[in-house]
Design a protein that fits this description.
Layout (H helix, E strand, L loop, with lengths): L2 H7 L11 H7 L18 H10 L4 H20 L13 H23 L2 H17 L21 H18 L5 H19 L4 H4 L4 H16 L3 H9 L9 H8 L10 H21 L8 H15 L1 E2 L2 E2 L14 H14 L2 H10 L6 H11 L11 E4 L7 E8 L6 E8 L12 E6 L2 E4 L20 H7 L9 E2 L9 H5 L4 E8 L2 E9 L5 E10 L8 E21 L3 E5 L4 E2 L16 E6 L7 E7 L2 E9 L4 E7 L12 E22 L1 E3 L4 E3 L5 E8 L3 E8 L4 E7 L7 E6 L2 E6 L2 E5 L1
Antiparallel strand pairs: 1-2, 3-4, 4-5, 5-6, 6-7, 8-12, 9-10, 10-11, 11-12, 12-19, 13-16, 14-15, 15-18, 16-17, 17-19, 18-19, 20-21, 22-23, 23-24, 24-27, 25-26
Helix pairs in contact: 2-8, 4-5, 5-6, 5-7, 6-7, 6-8, 7-8, 7-10, 8-10, 10-11, 10-13, 13-14, 13-15, 14-15, 15-16, 15-17
């Protein structure tokens, strides 16, 4: 334990450490003259701090947040200042202690401004003086798992997060310190850390990536607090100050015009915090930049887009996502408060009410005031196409909804670009939600965040060998090879071409086409959310058509959540041994529990989830097999969840169409031991096609017939004629619905 930690624990008064000449010289390289005064906080104005302090207990949510911080900081102060030499990866003691310290600095600084109690300021001072002694002695972190090693943490990303929060706490107390204390902390902590994360880490700082967003936010906010415009300019414009990197470039390149973040909802949530926190600091100090108006207000759109990209309070788990992250996470609490402070949108207040907390900030006070006055209005979760790519031309995330976001249906079609290194090889993948559950599932990431027993909390090897592979998703696999053969560089150069997006009453459609995932293969997919008066709940219809320049094997997986009730097809079960499906591209992680004979007939599979039945009725335009499989094979460290899947397979085909319908129905009540509606109300599914049009026909047990015709959109006036089981369907344009 270093000298300052020992002296604090012993109750000895601290004296600011002398700044070695070498450290001072390194910290001030390429820096302009620095003002040594501290006339007041700059990240939140003194007037706003006074207004928040005067608010007292008038607004319940604000008062509750203050009480929460008081309890948190009291525990930190009772534990004393502990600034250990970094040795651990994520989840280890030193890693978690430095995270606790960043939170304590931020929270204690906030409470000092709200209460005027100097004990909070002294606690922040003493903590930062301890860091001023430790930080100049640190080299690269001893854990070498990351190519972007930090000093306090195993990866520099965590150092950046520490800086973003700690500099806010420092700003709150800085004018209460003596000039000597400020100088010690400025030159012992914040200047060398800002220099390390910027000039010392150009391979991170100049990226267009969330790691760089956290870095530029920390460096830029430090620049404002230290009254150093040079640091601010680097943060905004990149190290070369040419605008090809830095915060402004990140806003322009990482978000689509709809506010969709390239890495997907999970990382949108994570990246949102530095974007909106730093933007607020910019707006506070340089309002003439109109940062929240940049690109038609894309940062504010990003907040509502993140909310739209959720179901039942949890983010859609596409790409490298951990499934327990939702709209109540700290990052979105910040985003909602800051967005509300800029827009006054009353629907954001309803999200804040669901979150149950807000910030102790001017924006958080505005949220608390609005909720106390009952000004909140329901947030409009709706069917939406969220374009991907900086120009909105790299595919899209399509979300079709029926009902509310907690109990209704949501059909998600992932037609996006790769999503950088956190993207999965799953173009035209889909998910389905109903009754508050993920019914057709996405595995997300193979990672146990910050759990030391699981490789220190980093991404596990199975993230590459399973979770990101195509077979782990609900989309097409050709010849047992993942899309783009799992090569990131190739995948980043290709994205789907979006097609139909229809939100008619009773019929919603999302369509897309993918070429280039395998040489010589093109496939189109349309997913539909359809209501019918003879069906108690909407059904999801899936139509996928693939064309190759050679005979290939097509596999189409469906990963589902629930317990199998009935297998509506002949199947050879593997009872005494459990063979593995393959040896590469994720197939090595699938046990095969049963295989059907090759046949041309339609098949069904029914499962039960939380008292509701789901029947999946499926077929293909060519003879096919059905395989029942489960994840978890070749997993010696038990890193994978055991989850079931169904695979449709055709072999040696050039062209094929897969067609299916997923029907929610019935109810099982275990409390009173009753079962109703356990049988499907769909009697059959049929399919017909010509060169550029297809029809899917559902015959219901009531005798009603529902047919959907789909065609190539290239000619919206073209006439189409398709015959199925002797019935001819004619229409013009891209789609049509037929009821009889």
């Amino acid at each position: 334990m270093n000298r300052l930690v020992l002296s604090l624990l012993a109750g000895v008064a601290l004296v600011p450490a002398a700044i070695p000449d070498a450290v001072r010289a390194q910290a001030t390289v390429a820096q302009p003259a620095v003002r040594s005064d501290a006339s007041g906080p700059v990240l939140v104005s003194p007037a706003d701090w006074r207004r928040m302090a005067e608010a007292g207990d008038r607004y319940p949510m604000f008062a509750r947040e203050r009480t929460r911080l008081e309890s948190s900081v009291a525990a930190a102060m009772a534990a004393g200042v502990n600034v250990p030499v970094p040795v651990d990866p994520g989840g280890g003691f030193t890693h978690e202690q430095h995270k606790r310290n960043q939170r304590a600095i931020y929270e204690a600084g906030t409470l000092y401004r709200l209460t005027g109690d100097v004990r909070y300021a002294h606690f922040v001072r003493d903590m930062l003086l301890a860091y001023a002694e430790l930080y100049p002695t640190l080299g690269p972190h001893p854990v070498t798992r990351s190519s972007r090693r930090g000093r306090l943490f195993w990866q520099s990303l965590n150092d950046s997060v520490w800086l973003v929060y700690s500099v806010q706490g420092y700003d709150a107390v800085r004018d209460s310190l003596t000039p000597a204390e400020r100088e010690t902390i400025d030159f012992g902590v914040f200047r060398p850390m800002a220099r390390f994360l910027s000039d010392g880490s150009p391979h991170v700082f100049n990226l267009i990536h969330n790691h760089a967003t956290w870095a530029v936010a920390g460096v830029g906010m430090t620049g404002y607090v230290l009254r150093d415009q040079d640091l601010v300019d680097k943060a905004l414009m990149g190290l070369a100050r040419d605008g090809q990197s830095g915060f402004l470039r990140q806003i322009d390149r990482l978000f689509s015009p709809d506010g969709y973040y390239e890495e997907g909802p999970y990382y949108q949530r994570y990246a949102l915090a530095p974007f909106v926190i730093f933007a607020r600091a910019i707006d506070q100090n340089e309002p003439q930049r109109q940062i929240f108006q940049r690109r038609d207000g894309v940062l504010l759109k990003a907040v509502t887009t993140a909310i739209q990209s959720s179901y039942g309070g949890y983010f859609l788990p596409i790409n490298d996502a951990i499934k327990d992250k939702g709209i109540d996470t700290e990052e979105l609490v910040s985003g909602v408060a800051i967005a509300y402070g800029r827009t006054g949108d009353p629907t954001l207040l309803s999200i804040a009410r669901r979150q149950g907390r807000t910030l102790l900030s001017p924006d958080g006070l505005a949220v608390a005031e609005g909720l106390a006055a009952d000004r909140d209005q329901p947030f409009a979760f709706r069917s939406i196409r969220l374009r991907d790519g900086p120009d909105g031309d790299r595919g899209a995330l399509d979300i079709l909804r029926e009902g509310d976001d907690r109990t209704g249906q949501a059909l998600v079609m992932k037609n996006t670009a790769q999503g950088m290194g956190h993207g999965h090889y799953d173009r035209l993948n889909w998910l389905f939600y109903d009754k508050g559950h993920e019914v057709v599932t996405d595995y997300g990431a193979a990672r146990f965040l910050n759990i030391e027993a699981k490789a220190g909390g980093v991404y596990l090897p199975e993230n590459d060998s399973w979770a990101s592979q195509t077979i782990a998703h609900n989309t097409l696999v050709v010849d047992g090879r993942s899309q783009f053969d799992g090569d990131l560089r190739t995948a980043e150069a290709h994205w789907p071409t979006t097609g139909l997006f229809v939100t008619d009453d009773g019929l919603q459609i999302a369509s897309s086409r993918m070429a280039g995932a395998w040489d010589g293969v093109v496939f189109d997919r349309s997913l539909m959310l359809v209501r019918h008066p003879d069906l108690p709940l909407p059904v999801a219809i899936d139509l996928l058509r693939a064309r190759a320049d050679r005979p290939v094997r097509y596999d189409l997986p469906l990963h589902f959540n629930g317990h199998i009730m009935t297998v509506g097809f002949e199947v050879q079960r593997n009872l005494e041994s459990r063979p593995v499906l393959g040896d590469t591209a994720g197939y090595q992680h699938l046990w095969v529990d049963g295989v059907s004979p090759v046949a041309e007939t339609e098949r069904t599979l029914t499962w039960l989830l939380d008292g509701r039945f789901y029947t999946y009725r499926f077929g293909a335009s060519a003879p096919s097999q059905a395989l029942l499989v489960e994840s978890g094979a070749n997993d010696p460290d038990f890193n994978l969840r055991r989850e079931p899947a169904l695979i449709q397979r055709t072999d040696g085909r050039v062209d094929v169409s897969f067609f299916s319908v997923l029907e929610p129905h019935g109810r099982y009540d275990g409390t009173v031991e009753t079962v109703t509606g356990s049988d499907s109300r769909i009697a059959s599914i049929r399919h017909g096609a010509d060169d550029n049009a297809e029809v899917v026909v559902l015959t219901l047990t009531t005798g009603a017939v529902l047919a959907i015709g789909l065609a190539d959109e290239s000619d919206s006036t073209a006439a189409h004629r398709v015959t199925v089981d002797g019935q001819t369907y004619e229409w013009s344009g891209a789609y049509a619905r037929f009821d009889r």
